[in-house]
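Standup notes, protein team

Yesterday: finished cleaning the Neogemmobacter tilapiae set.
Today: DUF4440 domain-containing protein structure.
Blockers: none.

Input for DUF4440 domain-containing protein:
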Amino acid sequence: MVLLFRNLALLLAILLPQTVQAELVTKYDPVIYDPEVPEIVAIVGTIDARTPLNFSRALEEMPRATEVILASDGGSVLPALTIAREIDRLKLNTTILPDTGCYSACAFLFFAGNERASSGELGVHQISSDSGDLESGQLALSDMMDVLSDYNVPDDVIVDMLRTPPEEMHIYTPEQLATLGIIGTSSSRVAKPTTPTADMSKKDLAAAFVQDFNRLWSLPNAQAVDTLAEKYALTVNYYGKSLTNFAVIEDKRAFAERWPLREYLIEPGSTAINCDELTCRVETIVAWQTSAPERGARSRGRALQSLTLVWNGSGFRISVEDGTVLERQ
């Protein structure tokens, strides 16, 4: 929450251009707007029981609004879900500005956006019921899961949300949001992983996972390394050694720093997959090329990539990684 109001001046500059002398309307706090900027409303502050009504009132006075700027530390879950539904119904866009944040219950509003954009922070964690009793918490969780499903939120994000205690916050950078497919238009965002069905078998999902794994490893360092952490189990048999997820990512980070430009492509027809109830073993041939312009170094070749994937109920994680260089040029 440290970023929440650090750049409130930027928010005010957007809502209140220097050429306009009008003042921001704050009577529907935490919903604010500038009548001279009819396309934008903002939610700046904590979401409580009155916020859905105030949001509706503000939109009645700003019927041309197409974008909701979010700078909130969260608040009550059910009011946030109500606002999210309204954002979705009206096909409003949601935005997090640089040096600001949208945390906790505010995330539901962001996910509801027809087009999502972020240059700041998005933070998620477990929900806690306002009343504190188990039954209310279960109902709130059920409502939350329905909303996240409707907005096509990736399973990885839902897992992060459920695993992060209420007193902590799992924060995504703009680069991570882009990689996860959270930002963009509703038609261009990446769909969340699908569970095996008659139409898409576990082998199909394993093949797609390995394809995506190599695609991510080919991205620039800032996007590739941290994103790969979500692809590995907590403990990995990594080229014959038992390593923690953190140790694997540190090894990947060291390699990425040595070879900042990478491209890994699966050779068509080279993939073999064998699955049982819980795991899939995937062997495929990958053509790779790496370079380090600052060192004037290049490397390319072909390798047999061997991965064992463990199904955790919502997606695969790598439990074993091994490989053999077949050709080096």
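Follow-up from PR in the comments: The two ends are 49 Å apart (CA to CA).
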